[in-house]
Amino acid sequence: MAQVALSSLAADPASAGLSLSLAGVKKSFGAVPVLQGFHLEVPASQFVAVVGRSGGGKSTLMRLIAGLEQPSGGRLTIGGQPVNGLHPDLRLLFQEARLVPWQTVLDNVGIARGPDWRARAEATLADVGLAGRGQEWPSVLSGGQKQRVALARALVGRPGVLLLDEPFGALDALTRLEMHRLLEGLWRERRFTTILITHDVAEAVALADRVIVLKNGETALDITIDIERPRRELADPRAVDLQRQILEAV
Amino acid sequence: MAWSAVVSEAREEAVRPSRIRPLLASFAPWIVPLVLLLLWEAAARFGLVTARLMPAPSTVALAGWKALLDGTLVHHTLISTQRALVGLVIGGGLGFLLGLLNGLWKPAETLLDSTLQMLRNIPHLALIPLVILWFGIDETAKIFLVAIGVFFPLYINTFHGVRTVDPQVIEMARVYGLDRAALIRRIILPGALPSILVGLRYSLGLMWLTLIVAETISANAGIGYMTMNAREFFMTDVVLLGIILYALLGKLADLATRLLERRLLRWHPAYQANHGDRN
Domain ABC transporter spans what residues (chain A) (predicted)? Predict the structure, then answer.
């Protein structure tokens, strides 16, 4: 199985990450401004976590980058190209798995179709630890397995940018740790640029290269996590210190 | 050796009741109808009811057998079924298409839905005098009535089904680049299917109901004609035979939709085969 996983993960140029840049991005809903001139530069293949209280603009930021909302002002570029709307090299993992219940696991992973999609979907399912489960219905899967299928669906097209909107919030603690290891492993091999939206400070420190605290639509803290990988989810004194700093800024 | 024999025996013992229980369970719904049938037979035999008004089930069965032998049973049943199905395809097809159109396209809903809701509140059988004036008493009148009867359940349930497909799944499909055609074919239609099939079941019930009324008013063939004709000659057994035929055809239509549901909604936890048998 490891052989299969490795071969499907073999480096190819298309799987490299894309840089992401937000310049003076504004968004308001009616008269309520959520983001007022937001700036963010993410180099290719960086893993960024965005932390903040609910209502602090995290979800709006995510939906803007994903192209689900149009900014009221400012510029968004991916891989140096200005973006307007949905971007084919960007994939999104939602808070809920959002699998299509009337399609098999394999059809769900290959929802975007494209050439050779069956073989690619099978291989990606193996990468997330669900080899051979392609013919099952989503309804028989556990919450963690559903989120794995959703991750496979996001990664099957080898996106340059992966957005994660609190994707592990609904999972139990053990499953969440498993998903952290899985995501970190896949990211280290594929190097897609990753933006993780979360309210879990420990999760942010455990996974990201860089943590940004979003407060009232502005960056309250921008901090680099300089802990070698793979990271242990134990109480590393450096991690504890970083978590305290972040919590103070939130 | 002996030990394994004991084990296999024990296993057989464990298997046997679970084989018999489903058989018993599938027989259970028939107990009450069978008892009623026996009571009815006894009441007719012992003169508790007037045989002329309520002939015994055996007499009805005999009438059915005779009608089967001389071909009238098949003839009338085929004609009725044909009317029912033509009406279903026309009315149900239109209901499905309009439900789809209004569910998918807001301007169409704005334009059409309130009119359709207004028409829906007219009992379609109240149109009979008008239908006779328009079409006379030929086939068109009967098919028209059936088509109107089956139209609304399919229209409403298709519309409702399309509108209640999980918006989160639709958003996901958009993010993953599905175009409008793929979205309708792979997400919206299958998502609306449980509701559409509920509409179909309602429609099938109304289909037979409407046909019975339409055939009773005027026809020169069909089950309704057969029973009305028998009434004139006081052949109560044939009248009862017609009623039983309608019941059987209705049951058959219901069975067909259930099979369709089980086949098309395999993904749905509520329809998954051996869902309850697993333990």
Answer: 20-242
The reply to whether residue B175 touches residue A66, judged by beta carbons under 8 angstroms, is yes
How large is the angle between the packed helices B189-217 and B93-104, nearest 10 degrees? 140
Residue carrying the six token digits 């044939």: B238
Quick check: is A115 in a domain? no
Q: Answer whether residue B174 shows pLDDT above 60.
A: yes
Task: State the Cα–Cα distance between residues A156 and A12, nearest whole angstrom.
Answer: 13
A194 inside domain:
yes
* Parent domain of A35: 19-101+154-249
What CATH number is attached to the domain comprising A242?
3.40.50.300
The domain total for chain A is 1
Give mean pLDDT in consecutive 10-residue pieces for chain A, a chain of 250 residues: 40 69 90 88 95 86 91 92 89 93 96 92 95 94 95 94 92 91 93 94 92 90 88 76 87
Q: Which residue of B has its CA nearest to A136?
A: B267
- Enumerate the β-bridge partners of residue A26: A73
B147 three-state secondary structure: helix
pLDDT at B226 over 80: yes
| For chain B, domain boundaries | 57-267
Q: Which residues contact A88 (CB under 8 A, 6 or more apart)?
A: A157, B177
Q: What is the largest CA-CA distance in chain B?
A: 85
Angle, helices A117-127/A2-9, rounded to nearest 10 degrees: 120
pLDDT at B3 over 60: no
Question: Is A114 touching B (CB cutoff 8 A)?
Answer: no
Are A101 and B268 a contacting pair at CB < 8 A?
yes
Q: What pLDDT, on a 0 to 100 scale, did the predictor assign at position A12?
A: 47
Residue B1 has pLDDT above 70, yes or no: no
A92 touches chain B (CB under 8 A): yes
ipTM greater than cut 0.90: no
